Amino acid sequence: MRRAFVNMYERLARDARVRVRPVVEHYARNERDAGLVNVCIRHDVDIRLDRAAEIARYEADLGLRSSWYFLTDTAPYRVWESDIPREIAAMGHEVGVHSDHLYEQLALGRDGLARLREDVQRMAEHARCTVHGICWHGGKHIAAFGANNYDLYKDIDPAQLGLEYHDAVFYHEGTRKWRCDRIISDGENNLRFVPGKPGREIDRAESGADILVVTHPFMMYPLRFPPSVRYPDYPHLSPPRRRTLVMDLKSCIAYNKQYLGEKRTARLRRLVALLERIGMK
Ligand SMILES: [Zn+2]
User: Fold this and answer.
1) Distance 224 CA to ligand 1 centre (A)
2) pTM here?
3) Distance (Å, rounded) from C-alpha 107 to C-alpha 236?
4) Rg of the chain, C-alpha, whole Å
5) What is the distance in A from the centroid of ligand 1 to the CA of 70?
6) 127, 86 Cβ separation under 8 angstroms
């Protein structure tokens, strides 16, 4: 696992000021300690189902519980043929559905809400646990339709979907703005570029703070051996874009200016300019 994540987990497990909870407890039920730093860990399993059990075991061994959201029919893995969701649930983690159901409706002509309800129930049976919640999956495949998977259910009461929560719990009411005090995410590259970041964020957090960690298993490992990813034969499905060094550096600067400070930001900007000048992408 990348050093940044090992650092993060060690800190979360050891720091007596920190309490880690899965999404259902932290956001749906608002179980927080006013005197502690409250951290919630969410994993979106876009690819690399094989790594999920490994990470979940590592967390469980550290005494941490988190939330795991699995894709269903559009996944580049076969979740219904895998024991991993059940194993992860048995470790005490939360298991939910990573919803790609508006995509199914737009690209495949299915009834998205009916399919979502079906998958929630099927996941509960498959993982032998209660599925409390879902969160939406993004990507080029749905963007190709000018849509967003959250649009399918954002105005629907989770209870009508047989759930305790959906993404609305993460956001300020009626928006898609995160309601946590801080977010630590691999998606915007900040975590994998700045190994000390989680520790710093925890140091800066006041008692009662709400920190959300969002990760994807494939981002948590060095990409020395890129996985071969096979999607079902549906339109626009493809692995996440291969990132280039310059793209990564730009993204790192954009999301970490505050953390890097002026000097290091300026140095990185000069480096990017130099790399572009010599024709690097
Ligand atoms: Zn996703």
Assistant:
1) 22
2) 0.91
3) 9
4) 19
5) 9
6) yes
The pLDDT tens digits of the residues spanning 110-131 come to 999 999 999 999 999 999 999 9
Per cent of the chain over pLDDT 70 is: 96
> What is the Å distance from ligand 1's center to 142 Cα?
11
At residue 224 the predicted structure's pLDDT band, cuts being 50, 70 and 90, is low
Of 47, 65, 93, the residue nearest 9 (C-alpha): 65
Taking the centre of ligand 1 as the mean of its atom positions, its distance from the CA of residue 138, in whole angstroms, is 5
- Report which of 14, 124, 15, 27 is spatially closest to residue 66, judged by C-alpha positions: 27
179: left (phi over 0), alpha (psi -120 to 50) or beta: alpha
Helix axes 101-108, 112-127, angle to 10 degrees: 130
Distance 83 CA to ligand 1 centre (A): 20
Q: How far is the CA of 34 from the centre of ligand 1 (A)?
A: 31
* Higher-confidence position of 184 and 259: 184
How far CA 134 is from CA of 12, 69, 71, 96, 263, in Å, comes to 24, 7, 10, 5, 41
Tell me the pLDDT of the chain averaged across its residues: 92
Confidence of residue 187 (pLDDT cuts 50, 70, 90): low
